[in-house]
Amino acid sequence: MLSGLEAPAKLRLATNSPVLLEFEPCAGFAEQEMQAVKALMVGSELGAQVVFISNNGHVWDLWEMENSKLSQFADSFFRDNACDGPPGVQRKFWCGQTRMPAISILDQNDFDLARSLRKRLRIENAEQFESLRNNLWLYQPSIAHLSCDVLSKFPIVEPGVEWELFWKIWDKVEFKQDIQKTKQKIEERMTLYGAGAREKTRQMGFTSFPNDTAFNVLHLRMEPDWRIFCELTLNASGRCPFCFDVFFLIVL
Amino acid sequence: MNNTFEVGNVLLSEGITPSIPLYLATTVSTKRTLEQWRGQSSAPFVGDNLFNIYTIITHEMLAETIFNEWTPRLGHHKMFWPAVSSLLGMNANMFVGNSVSTFSGFLMQQRLRIQKRSIHYNGGSLRLQETKQLAPKKKWRTELFRKKIKWLFCIQPREGQTQDSSAHMAKVAIKSAFAKTSLVAIGVTTASPTSKFAAELVAAGVRLIYHTPSWVPHIKAMISQWEGSNNRFSGDKKPSHLLSDVDAMVGTFLRIDIPILGLLDPFLFYADIDILFQNDVTWPKLLGATDKQFKKMKDLPYEQQVFAKPGQEGIPMFFAMSAESEMEKVAANAGVMLWNVQSMRRSYPSFLNFIVTSGDITWPIGPGDQGALRTFYQGDRGPSYLPYLFNWKAYWPRNPTAVLVHFHGPKCEGDILPYLDDGRIRLPLFHFLLKRCQEGGNCLELCRQYMNYLQD
Hints:
The complex is a heterodimer of chains A (252) and B (456). Chain A is built from ten helices and six strands; from the N terminus they run αβαβααβαβαβαααβα.
């Protein structure tokens, strides 16, 4: 099956599970963060190695992935999950002597190749795991496709096993050094801005904040897409009859 | 609620200190794009409180300095800044987010896990939890009746004066609020943030909202139009000293803008500054409800609330007021009110239109915004009734259970004490009320309290 492939690609594909899970990330930064965690949760249910396509502008390009806390946790978790399950091919794969990776990081070309060699199944909803798992392992090598819609609707509700697992996985996510270093440099810089803020507000009667390095963060949605959302969704529903700018109605 | 342009007011009213920098997590981050954003509003003063009071830091500003010395390899990734912003959001003293945004909702949930405080500036509940994408047991929503009740007052500086009688009254009202109640004091003023007048209020512990009403030119025009006219009080117009005093009139009209300031509280307690708090302000007392009744009310969403009929106690459809000078159950005095912010916000454009098309700023029922409020909101949408205890008059008999005493009409320093000392009367209009001070009223004791607060 692997004949004719370049050696590195062969090597990468050889480490892949007989069953893969591909997921379709969508929307913005935080959505993708949550989708990636949820994909790992679904992957562990199916015993399917989860494919993260790299260098495609996704959020995990910024995460520590290989040999990271996240991958180590996922490896153990997938293995434990399978070892606790019934005997069969799935358990044999995950629970063998060699520890198998739960995450497979592939570039788009390698992924296209891996997919072309597999039977493809779609996940239509997030409640059909048992039959899907059986099919995926029956028709291996196979790949399940998890759409953005299904992934987004995958509920994470407290209290619940999913809630606990979601946060266990999330706690292992780390950003790459570039991001960490930028954040650190900004925080160092905040001391300077803080001095300015103190000086500016002292004459307004505000008392100084006890911590010199403290800062606040405002996530202000002010981009054009927010205006469109506001006008189309909030105004149309009548929830917010003049929601974007009350002042436009009242300037005399 | 959106609050995009009113976000500065939200920060001020929620007590988020401007004495530390405010990092703005948005893709609109260059000076030019921020100016374009402000230009989208037809009001030139929009965003003033955000940009003039707070020290805004954008990633554009940071990139200019930080990346001079070092360039991150991932700097061009389209999610580089959201990633940095999310880390900063986790470490921030306070995170202020947007309730619809997943970025905000996820960050707020993460901060909650490490017991760091966050708020969202646009009210309601988090969409992330409503859609069950991430739904914690404890739902994150702005309570209908927030634990800490906000007391709003409006204050307008007299030109060129810092220690006028209104500053004294404000000082006393604020001190008594802090001494006797658990209220959060919020002032609304046209004063400049750097004025001594405003700075003293802030230093006294007031959360001050600096506001430029759009209707000031109209008020000024109305006062000058009638200045010196023999017909000023002709027909059924009631006389008022406010009708010749621009500052005082702007000061009293300021309260009509309360619903559009962007405060997150669905219900707000308003009281003028010529007051003295005597006991704590609580929701059950304000709504004329027992603790048990209130418990039921607070668990219901806004849409399922039963609003009080005009003249009755309860949750106001628009606002609740108490009596004027006579102790009768008539919702008439705008000096102390309970506002239903949501419905007042919805009706604001038509209310303002009513004011500016009336041709004067006095109505048969009375002058100023009180006259406008009582004329516009009547019939089915008339005010509900606020219990007497919240607007007890100084010239009424002593009442130890009163929550708030209102120096309605005559004031301690200018009127009551001179009258009680040697019968001096500054404004003949107040004579009948001053007489009531002597005949069974409690003015003297209350003015002593007033002076104690003032001199303390």
